[in-house]
Design a protein that fits this description.
Helix 2 runs antiparallel to helix 3, helix 6 runs antiparallel to helix 7 and helix 7 crosses helix 10. It contains ten helices and two strands, in the order H-E-H-H-H-H-H-H-H-H-H-E. Strands 1-2 form a two-stranded antiparallel ribbon. It is elongated, with a radius of gyration of 18 Å. The chain is mainly α and 197 residues long.
């Protein structure tokens, strides 16, 4: 399994944005190039989607705040406790951690897929779970869910043993993971306005 190269893919913070936009998507990934209305910021694009949900006033404030916490790569890297403190301090909105997590799940349903994740693993899982199920994707989810460390460290033999799979099965699962976008906000980074693709 030495010929599988995920180095470049996994060092996601060091990858210049253009690398995450390579054209290695298969035909079932047509949702990667959604045309956005010209002149809308990434944050506004996400908020416009949130406003289609039926939320209470407080839930609306919290989800808007979560969207505002999303960085250029599409991640929420701030600790949820800090977000709760900020909500109380700046918005006078008091929420529980479980309520925040429930609303975070709504934010994670927005497009582009994977946005609102707190780390790479969660980002990839959000994207995989949105796709139609097949055996390679199910295995990929299982690997990310239960053996992310082995995957990142490329301990392929351990993965083959742990999941009782063939090398071909593993390659197919890794291929599914490599099709995902490690930086869902990356195509907008450094370009506050979303232009038509």
């Amino acid at each position: 399994a030495d010929d599988i190269n995920i180095d470049e893919y996994l060092s996601d913070d060091e990858i210049p944005n253009y690398k995450t936009q390579s054209n290695n998507y298969s035909s079932d990934d047509e949702d990667k190039h959604i045309p956005y209305a010209s002149g809308i910021t990434f944050t506004q694009h996400l908020k416009n989607q949130i406003h289609t949900y039926r939320l209470t006033e407080n839930e609306g404030i919290i989800t808007d705040f979560l969207v505002g916490s999303i960085d250029d790569s599409g991640y929420i890297r701030r600790d949820l406790h800090d977000i709760l403190d900020d909500l109380a301090f700046t918005q006078n909105v008091f929420a529980t951690e479980s309520e925040l997590k429930r609303l975070l799940k709504i934010v994670q349903q927005l497009d582009p897929s994977g946005v609102g994740a707190r780390d790479l693993r969660e980002c990839l899982l959000i994207q995989l779970r949105r796709k139609e199920e097949n055996s390679s994707r199910t295995l990929a989810i299982d690997i990310l869910d239960n053996s992310f460390e082995h995957f990142v460290k490329k301990h392929y033999d351990k993965l083959i043993q742990k999941f009782h799979i063939s090398e071909d099965d593993l390659k197919a699962a890794i291929k599914e993971i490599e099709k995902l976008n490690p930086k869902p906000g990356g195509s907008f980074a450094g370009n506050n306005k979303i232009a038509e693709h």
